[in-house]
Design goal:
Blueprint lengths: L1 E6 L1 H5 L1 H12 L4 E6 L2 H10 L5 E3 L2 E3 L2 H25 L4 E6 L5 E5 L9 E6 L1 H9 L3 E9 L5 E3 L2 H12 L3 E5 L6 E2 L2 E2 L2 E2 L1 H9 L5 H15 L3 E5 L11 E3 L6 H8 L1
Parallel strand pairs: 1-2, 1-10, 2-8, 5-8, 10-14, 13-15
Antiparallel strand pairs: 3-4, 6-7, 8-9, 11-12, 14-15
Helix pairs in contact: 3-4, 6-8, 7-8, 8-9
Bound molecules: adenosine-5'-triphosphate and magnesium ion.
The site of adenosine-5'-triphosphate has 20 residues, from helix 3, helix 6 and helix 8.
């Protein structure tokens, strides 16, 4: 079993929660790659530095200063806190970003309309496979390498999806600050692909959750089983919302999604 675990910023910011999380990741059967976000922490630092925080369709607009803050917060502080949490438990982990070894290659999203926000074009599986083969837990910050070598800010759910596709993961866990995909306060236990799309179109899933569902849909179409919820999904895959995989293959799935 090969898993990709994406942890949202809220989970990473809370030290006690993070300890529990890494314990559960370490207990998963088979190998796991961790990809982390950090949206709220980036916003908090932008505010401290009096930089504007701008959003469009749930995606962060990233100017030149915001890009520096994003790289410092995600690839620097947060990445190493996840690594620390693993190491504190005696589990060897190596923190890298999408820039290291050109792991995640991206191009400016929406023709550059979102500033230095990237969309993924390629993930190199070899670095992750080498780390996993040597017994290290890779911990990935989604800051990625742009076409001119400059960093681009990639949404962590999107990075996780492409990492999952590149390494042929069986499961993707999207650990967030909500117990699952909610409709009128209730967790939706199971979503079909059409159901997930409808939730986004009808505006039931908004902002970060709409982004997450779009990525989850592509992953599910590519044959990856996806769970969305809080840390409990690591102990029980069905504790939140589950999307089942189909078998269109990742290339076909991405074509349909675009
Ligand atoms: N229908 C919905 N069900 C659940 N959450 C929803 C829904 N619609 C919108 N949301 C919002 O989506 C948020 C989760 O996405 P968000 O991008 O904020 O977190 P994340 O992806 O886990 O973390 P990060 O962006 O730091 O990686 C929830 O906190 C909630 O406010
Ligand atoms: Mg998010």
């Amino acid at each position: 079993m090969l898993s990709v675990v994406k942890v949202g910023g809220a989970a990473v910011s809370d030290a006690a929660g993070l300890q529990r999380l890494v314990q559960d990741v370490a207990a998963l059967s088979g190998n796991a790659v961790v990809v982390h976000g950090g949206g709220k922490e980036i916003s908090a630092w932008q505010e401290r530095l009096e930089l504007p925080v701008e959003w469009r369709d749930g995606l962060r607009v990233t100017g030149p200063d915001a890009l520096r803050v994003t790289a410092m917060v995600l690839s620097g502080w947060m990445n190493k806190r996840v690594v620390q949490a693993f190491e504190d438990r005696g589990v060897t982990a190596v923190g890298i970003s999408g820039e290291d070894g050109s792991l995640i290659q991206a191009v400016p999203a929406q023709g550059g309309a979102l500033g230095a926000v990237g969309e993924v074009v390629r993930v190199r599986p070899d670095l992750l496979e080498a780390l996993l083969g040597a017994g290290f837990h890779p911990v990935v910050s989604p800051v990625s390498r742009g076409p001119d070598g400059h960093p681009l800010n990639v949404n962590a759910d999107e990075a996780a999806l492409h990492v999952a596709a590149a390494i042929g993961a069986d499961r993707m866990y999207l650990v967030s600050d909500v117990p699952g995909v909610l409709d009128e306060g209730e967790v939706l236990r199971e979503l079909t692909l059409d159901g997930a799309r409808a939730l986004v179109e009808e505006g039931v899933a908004q902002g970060g959750m709409a982004v997450k569902l779009r990525q989850a849909l592509v992953a599910a179409r590519a044959g990856v089983e996806v769970a969305i919820g809080d840390g409990r999904i690591l102990r029980d895959f069905r504790a939140g919302t589950v999307l089942h995989g189909s078998n269109e293959g990742v290339a076909g799935a991405m074509e349909v999604a675009s």
